[in-house]
TrEMBL record:
<keyword id="KW-0805">Transcription regulation</keyword>
<keyword id="KW-0539">Nucleus</keyword>
<dbReference type="InterPro" id="IPR017884">
    <property type="entry name" value="SANT_dom"/>
</dbReference>
<keyword id="KW-0863">Zinc-finger</keyword>
<dbReference type="GO" id="GO:0006338">
    <property type="term" value="P:chromatin remodeling"/>
</dbReference>
<dbReference type="GO" id="GO:0070461">
    <property type="term" value="C:SAGA-type complex"/>
</dbReference>
<dbReference type="GO" id="GO:0008270">
    <property type="term" value="F:zinc ion binding"/>
</dbReference>
<dbReference type="InterPro" id="IPR001005">
    <property type="entry name" value="SANT/Myb"/>
</dbReference>
<dbReference type="InterPro" id="IPR041983">
    <property type="entry name" value="ADA2-like_ZZ"/>
</dbReference>
<dbReference type="GO" id="GO:0005634">
    <property type="term" value="C:nucleus"/>
</dbReference>
<keyword id="KW-0804">Transcription</keyword>
<feature type="domain" description="Myb-like">
    <location>
        <begin position="67"/>
        <end position="110"/>
    </location>
</feature>
<feature type="domain" description="SANT">
    <location>
        <begin position="62"/>
        <end position="114"/>
    </location>
</feature>
<dbReference type="Pfam" id="PF22941">
    <property type="entry name" value="TADA2A-like_3rd"/>
</dbReference>
<dbReference type="Pfam" id="PF00249">
    <property type="entry name" value="Myb_DNA-binding"/>
</dbReference>
<protein>
    <recommendedName>
        <fullName>Transcriptional adapter</fullName>
    </recommendedName>
</protein>
<keyword id="KW-0479">Metal-binding</keyword>
Amino acid sequence: MADDDSQRYHCSYCGCDITLRLKCNGCPDFDLCLECFASGASIGNHMPDHPYQLIDEGSFPLLTNDWGAIEEVLLLEAVEQDGFGNWEDIGAHVFTKTARESKDHYNEAYVNSIIGEGLLLPDYHSKVLADGGGEIPPSPPSFTPMSLEHNEQQDLTYAPLRDDFEKEYDNGAERIISEVPIHNEEDSIERELKLAHIDMYNKRLGEREKRKCFARDHNLLGGKMRISSMKRKYSKEERDIRNKFRPLARLMDKDEYEKLVGSLKREKELIERIQSLKEYKRNGITKIEDGIEIDMLKQEKEKENEHSELPGDTYQGKTIYMYSLFHYSLCPTIRYCIADTERKKSL
C-alpha cells in the first residue's frame, strides 16, 4: 500500500515500511513484505495463492548493508567491461560509489571472502595484475572539441569531433600489433613477446595523444590566419621571449607556460627599469620627475630622428652639444644632463 505523503510503501498485513515488495496482481493496492509473504499471510479478499509480482529498484542489500543489489550488478558489469584494477572507470560506472569504495568492496565481498575462495584459484587476481603489468590506468578524459571553420579543418586535415588527423603522428604505429598472430596454444616466450609488442604500441599511442593534448592546450590547432592574429596581440619583446623558451612548453601545461612567460617579461621590465635608474644616478639626476622628463625628450628625439649637430652651449664652464632645437627650451640642469650623456656616448 502506497503512502501519498512520503511516497513509501507499507506492508498491507503488518504495516512496516518496505522497499522490496511483492505486489498482488489479484487485489488492488495490496503489497506484502518478504516475511509476510513467506508466512503465507492472508487478509480480507487476499489469498496466498494469488499471483504476485516482485517490485524493487534494486535497493535491497545482498552481501553488505551499504551496497544495494543494483550496485552489485553494476560493479560486476564494470569489472568485466573495464577490467580488474581499472577502479577509476569502475567507480564511474557504478556512479553511486567512489573508485576507492568500489575497490574495497570488490576485494572484501568477492576476492577475500567465501565467494572468492570457492570460485577463484589462489592469488588469482594478483597474478592477473602481475601478468598484465599492474592495475589498468583510467580511460583518457573526454575533451571539448575545438570550434574550427571548414577551411581550417581542410588545411589541417583534422576532424575536431573525432580528434583525429588524416595522417597521425607516428602513423604506422598500428603495424606493430596488426601482424601479431592469435591462437589458443602458445608458450610463455611467445606470450611475453606479444605483451612486449602491446606495450610498445601503447607507448607510441601515449606519445601521439600527448602531442594532440599539447596542440589543443596551446591553441595550435587553427589556420594560419588564426595563429598569426594570436601572435600579433603580443609585443615584440614578448614574442622574442616566447620564441626563445618555446621548447619548454612541451614540459608544462598552458597555465604554467603562460606564468613562465609573464615572469620572464616582468623580469626584463625590472632589469630595464634598474638600468634606467642607474643612468639617472650617473647623470646626477636625483628626482624621478626629472628622469621621466628626460625619457620623454629622448623619445621625442627618436621620433624626430634629427642627427645634425647644432651650435653648442655652455653650462658651468662645460660645452653642451645640442641635437634638437626643442632642447633649448629646457632648464639648464636638464640641458646639461642630456648633452653630457650624448657626449659620453660619442667618446
